[in-house]
User: Fold this.
Amino acid sequence: MQNEELFEEIDNEQNVVQKYLGLSLKKFFILVSVVIAFGIYLGIILYGTNSVEVLLNLQDYETYLQNEVIRLKSENAELQREYFELKEISAQ
Assistant:
């Protein structure tokens, strides 16, 4: 009977967090704070102004600009060829 009374006394002294999670209330709040802070940090990393999404968009834009430079160089070469042909015809 004495063991049952001892267990009841221990159960009455523990709060819900200690009873179900085995943590003191202070450690529980620290753990919750760390989890929330980590969640906010991940949110900033994934969706903020310096995020992975922005990096990928900039890489796509860089690829687009490189392709545009190649296209404009070939268009410029074609126009220069046409210009020199017209200049040669007008010189004759």
About this structure: Helices lie at 2-13, 16-21, 25-47, 52-91.
